[in-house]
Amino acid sequence: MDFLDLDINLSKEDIMLKENANEFARKVMRPIAKELDEMTPEQVIAKDSPFWTFMKKAYGLGYHSILIPDAYGGMGLSPLQQAIVYEELAWGSVGLTIALGVASFPAFGAAMVPEETMIDEILVPFCENTDATFIGCWGITEPDHGSDTLMPDHPSFKNPDILSQCIATPDGDDFILNGQKSAWVSNGTIATHCALFCQIDKSMGHAGGGIFAIPLDLPGVKKGAALDKIGQRDLNQGEIFFDNVRVPGKYLIAGPEAYEGLLEIVLSATTCLMGVFGTGVARAAFEEALSYAKTRVQGGKPLIEYTAIQTKLFHMLTKVETSRAISRSVFVYNQNTSTPAEEYSIMAKVHGTQAAFDVANDAIQIFGGNGLTKEYLIEKLFRDARAMLIEDGSNDSLAVAAGHKIIQTYPRKD
Ligand SMILES: Cc1cc2nc3c(=O)[nH]c(=O)nc-3n(C[C@H](O)[C@H](O)[C@H](O)COP(=O)(O)OP(=O)(O)OC[C@H]3O[C@@H](n4cnc5c(N)ncnc54)[C@H](O)[C@@H]3O)c2cc1C
Prior knowledge:
Elements: H1 12-37, H2 41-44, H3 50-61, H4 79-92, H5 94-103, H6 105-110, H7 116-128, E1 136-139, E2 166-171, E3 174-181, E4 193-199, E5 209-215, E6 221-223, E7 240-248, E8 252-254, H8 256-295, E9 297-298, E10 301-302, H9 307-335, H10 342-367, H11 377-388, H12 395-409
Parallel strand pairs: 1-4
Antiparallel strand pairs: 2-3, 3-7, 4-5, 5-8, 6-7, 9-10
The site of flavin-adenine dinucleotide has 22 residues, from strand 1 and helix 12.
C-alpha cells in the first residue's frame, strides 16, 4: 500500500481486494478513461468504444456486483470491503466507477425486497452477466425536479402541490407509466433496466412515490441523446421517456406507504458512497501533485523543497485522510443498522466531494501552467471532481436536508 489506511485491523483479504482493485484501476481504468474523456458522448458508447472493453472486463471480474450479497451471486463483500474496493476504482476513474455502480441499481433495489420475480428476473441474471449486456440505471431526477427529489423527511417532500413529471397510475395489477426522467440519468441511453423512482400518489407530493425495477424494452420506452458535459465524460448520461408504458405490478419494489423510508435507506448508502469516491479522486489528485513536485525544478531546485509546497501537500493529504475516515466509518455504520443516519451520509458526501475538488484545485496550483493542459491527468481529475459537487444531490441542498434532520434528531433520546 502506498499510503497508510489508518486501520490496523485490515485483514489479508481486505488488502488483497484493495491491491487487485488498484491494479485494475491503474492498468485498465486510467488509460481507457483518458481515451473516453477526449471523445464525443456518441463515440463513448459506440460499439467499438473502449468503454465496452472496460465494462466487459469489470463485469468479468464481478465489479458490477460489489453491492450485491453472494446469496444472489454478487461479490458478497463486507461494507468495509465495498468501501475499500470502490475507493480504488474511483481513484482509477470516478465516471467509470459511477457507470458500474448505477449498473447495479435495479439489482441493489431488488435485493431489498427479494421476491421470486426480482430474484429470477433481475438479481441473478444481473450477477451472472459477464459481458455487460445487463446494465442498470437509476432514474430519479426529472427536468423540473432535482434537489427536491433527494430530500426525504424535509417538509417540501410532502408538499402535495409538487407534481412529478413521471407518474405511475395503478391499473388493475399493473401500472401505466407516463412522463420522463432527466438527461442526468447515468447509463441512461445504454441501460437495459432501470431502478425507477416516480410518483404514484399525487396527493402526497414526492412522498407518494414508488420504486420499480423495470426492463427498458417495454413498449413505449424511448431514450434521449447522450449528454455532453465538462467532467466525467466517460460516464454516459441521457433521458428516458415513458409513453403509456404498461408495467406489470411484479416489478414494484415499494409503493407510497414505504417510499420515503426506503428512499432514506437507499440514499444513506449512495450518498455516502459519493464520499468514498471523493476520497479516491482526492487521493489521485494528491498523488499527481506529490509526484510532479518531486520532479519539477524551479528556481534551481525541485518544487518539493519549498516549504510552501510541503505545507500545501500536508493540507491536501489531511483532506484525503479525513474524507476516508468519515466516509468509511459512516458507510460501515449505516450498512450495519436498520436505522441509518442519513445526515452522516450527507456529511461524508459533502466533505468527500469537496475534498476531491479542493485537492484537485490545489494540485493544479502546484502544477502551475502545466496543470491547465491536457497533457497531465490533473485537469481531468479537476473537471471530474467539479461534477461531484452536484452529482447525487447538490452539496448545498443536501446540507439543507441534513441541517433539518440534525435539529430534529439531536440530542438523541435513545
Ligand atoms: C455526474 C452526474 C451524475 C448524475 N447521475 C444521476 C443518475 O444516475 N440518476 C438521476 O436521476 N440523476 C442523476 N444526476 C442528477 C443529480 O442528482 C442532480 O443534478 C442533483 O440532484 C441536482 O439537481 P439539479 O441539477 O436539478 O439542480 P437543482 O435542484 O435545480 O439545484 C440548482 C441549485 O439550487 C440549489 N437548491 C435547490 N434546492 C434548494 C433548497 N431547497 N435549498 C437550498 N438550495 C437549493 C442547489 O443546491 C443547486 O445549487 C446526476 C448528476 C450529475 C452531475
